[in-house]
Structures are given as structure tokens and as C-alpha cells.
Amino acid sequence: MITWQCGRTVCFSWVCPIRASSAGLTSVSPPAGESVPVAEQFDKEKANAEFQALDNVVNNEKPASTPGVPGVRLTDAEKDKCEAEITKLYKQLDDKDDEINQQSQLAEKLKQQMLDQDELLASSRRDYDNLQTELNRLQAENEASKEEVKEVLQALEELAVNYDQKSQEVEDKTQEFEILSEELNQKSTVLSSIDSELQKLKEMTSHQKKRVTEMMSSLLKDLTEIGIAVGSNDIKQHEGSGLIDEEFTVARLYISKMKSEVKTMVKRCRQLEASQAESNNKMEETERELTACQLRISQHEAKIKSLTEYLQNVEQKKRQLEETVDSLNEDLVKIGAQEKVHAMEKESEVQTANEVKKTVLEQERLRVEHEKLKAADQEKSRKLHELTVMQDRREQARQDLKGLEETVAKELQTLHNLRKLFVQDLATRVKKSTELDSDDTGGSAAQKQKINFLENNLEQLTKVHKQLVRDNADLRCELPKLEKRLRATAERVKALESALKEAKENASRDRKRYQQEVDRIKEVVRAKNMARRGNSAQIAKPIRPGQQPVASPTHPA
Q1: Model confidence band, residue 61 (pLDDT cutoffs 50, 70, 90)
Q2: Fewer CB in 10 Å around end: N or C, the chain?
């Protein structure tokens, strides 16, 4: 399809109906001239005016013509303008081809970017799978540590129950020992009082015996002296009887005195004998009580010895239990530290789970965006296919234009020859004016039809060009958005990787810090326990869980 726009006249127009229909130039688009430069737009009104002027000129001149030869006159200026229009149309076609090539390259770039984004999404999915595997492993380790903590807590509860039982037994034995100690103190007090009374009785008995002995010895001495005196008086009786009577009276008085004294002495002796019998009875009773007390003392000593041994065993058990309590305190400190560590790990796991959830949501969002981008890519592929089809149509149109160019060249040559024939046959045309009028009328109608067809084809080409320009603008508008989304996805993946790395570093740092804190607490507790025990005996073999307790000794009644 070729259209020549001249100053006054439309010189020639021709179209190939078959090629025009095969080119598919029937699409509907917005009004013509929207994206075409003003200098290159087709002025339909101007063409109609030129066509009317040409029709008027032809009708006024009424040239003669032979059948099959149109009555059209071409000047050199009109030929130059027509050639300029043809060159301009070729230039427009080349511009359209360049735009189509640019759109194809743009579509290829978009395809490459979509492939890169697919690779990024696949790598992010692999990273998510790795994170999920790591999370499952951490959860399994957490469950195992929870089971271990439960077992340790159960063992600690059993040890606490055993410790409470032993403490209760120790308290009971301590109370029994205190009761026995009080009874022993009472018996010792009674025994000491009985010993003091017995000692007093012994002293009183010895004192009475001593006094009786002294009195008897003095009495015997007096009697001896009296006998001696009486015997000497008998010898000296002949010497002086008066003196004898006096002495005898004195002796009688003395004897009566002695008799009264003897009576008193006998009475006193009887009293002493009675008191001695009573004292002997008391001594026997005291000896029996003393024997019973000694027996009870021996029993109590044996009991005290057994209690002492039992107390030693209890003390040993107490030290062992203190050792066990210390170890349990250390274990409790460890468990407390481990619980803190587990709590921190749980918090970190919760944070990791939240981050994983956020990552999953982000990945879901990225997947949705990927689906959207994929749909957009499919849409772009469809548009690219349409552009390719349009490019093929353009190529077909170019081939048609080449054929038309050859045809136009031939027609130009034919027109040149016809011009010569027109000059030669001018006289003949004047003669046959009536016949020429009918021929000119038919030729004008055919030219109008061809011009209308060419105008329609030009409008369709303009519409296709504007559609291509709009598609190119849409692709250029969507390209920054896709690049921005791709950069945002890459930045999000990098941020997630850095967050995961930072979370791992924080977790390892927290583990080290808590391990150091646990070691420090262990050292402090151990130092406190050593300072509290002081110089007490150290038990080489601590009590193990399930060990049989030491049997308590029997307590005699």
C-alpha cells in the first residue's frame, strides 16, 4: 500500500488486496496520530481538498483519453513530493522495525530477570528447608533435654524424700537420747545423794564406835583404878579405919555415879545398837539400791555406749547427708542454671520460631509475588508473542512494500510514457470530449476508491504503531517495578541470612555466658560448703541414691 501526498493532486495510488488482508491490518486502536510526530501525520482533510481540486481541474480541462489510460497529469514537483512521501514512509517503517527490535530485546531481558528471580526463589526455598531442618533438630534436642531435666528432678525429689525421712529419724533419735540423758542425770543425782547419806551414816557410826570405845576404855580404866584403890584400902585397913569409911563412902558415891553412868551408857549403847541395826538395815537397803543403781548405771553406760556409737553413725550419716545435700545443692544450682539456659534457649527458640513464621509469611508473600510475576511474565510472553506476530506481519508488510515499490516504479515509468502519449493524443481527446467525460468520471471514482482504501490502510498502520508504542511504554514502566521487587527480594533474603547468623552468634554467646555463670556459682557454693564444714571428717565415699541406711541400735528397757 502506497499513498502519495502532493501539493494539489493525488498522483497515483495502488494496493494489493490479497497482501493487505494477509497482513492483518484490521485492528482497532485509539484515534490516529496520537504517538506519531505532527510532521509525519496524514492530513485527511488536506488530501480530500487536493482530491477535489484535482477533480475540478480534470473536469475543467476535460482531456481526451484512450480506453484503459487514466487522464492524470504529473509534474516534476509532484513527483518529488511523492518520492519524498515514499521515503518518509520507508523511514517510518524502519523506525517501527527498530522499536520492535528494542521491544524484543526488552522482553528477552525481562525473561532473563524472571529466570534469575526464579533461581533466587529456589535458593530461598532451599534456605527455608535448611532452616526448618535446623529448627526440627533444635526442637528434638530441647525435648531430650526436657526429658533429662524431668529425670533429674524426679531423682532429686526421691533424694529429698529420703533426706526428710533421715532427718526425721535423726530428730527422733536425738529426742530419745535427750530423754535418756535426762533420766541418767536424775539417776546420777539420786545415786550421789544416796552416796552422801551413806557416807554420813558411816561417819556417824564410826564416830559412835569411837566414843563408845573411848567411854568403855575410860570406864575400864576407872574400874581398874577403883579396884586398885579398893585393894590398897584393904591392905591399909589396919592402918586407918576412919579413912576407909570416908573413902568407901566416896567410892560408893563414885560407884553409884558410875552405876548411873553405866546405866546411861547401857541405855546409850542400846540406843546405839538400835540405831546401828537401823543403820545396818539402811546400809543393806542402800547397798541393795546401790547394787541396783550400779546395775542400772552399767545398763545405762551400755546404753550410752550404744547410743554414742549410734550417734557416731548418725553423725557420720549426717556428714554424708550434708555431703549429699551439698552435691544436691550444686546439682540444683546446675539445674537452675540449666533451667535459665533452657528458658533463654526457649525464648531464643520462640524468637526463632517467630522469625521463621515471619520468614514463612515473607516466603508466602514472595511466593504470591512470584506467582504474580510469573503471571506477569506469562502476560509479557503473550505480549511478546503478539509483538513477534506483529513483527512477522511487519516483515510481511515490508515484503509487500518491496513488491509495491517495484510496482510503483513500473507504474511511474508507465505514467511517464502515458504523459508522452497524453501530449501526443491531446487533439484526439478534445474531439472525443463526450467519451472522455464518461471515462474521466469512471477514472475519478476508481481513484477515490483507491485513495479511501489507502487512507484506511494508513490509519490501521498508525493504530498498530501506537499499540506497539503503548506496549513498549507498559514494558518500560513494569521493568523498574520488577527490578525493584527483585532487589527487595534479594535484600530480604540477605536480611534473613544475617538475622539467622546473628541469632546463632547470640545463642552461642549466651550459652558461654551461662556456662561461666554456672561454673562461678559452683565455685561459690563449694567454697561455702568447705568453709562451713571446716575441719570435719571428710567422707571418701558419698551416699549414692538407693543405698541402704545404717541400722539403728536396740535400746534396752
Answers
A1: very low
A2: C
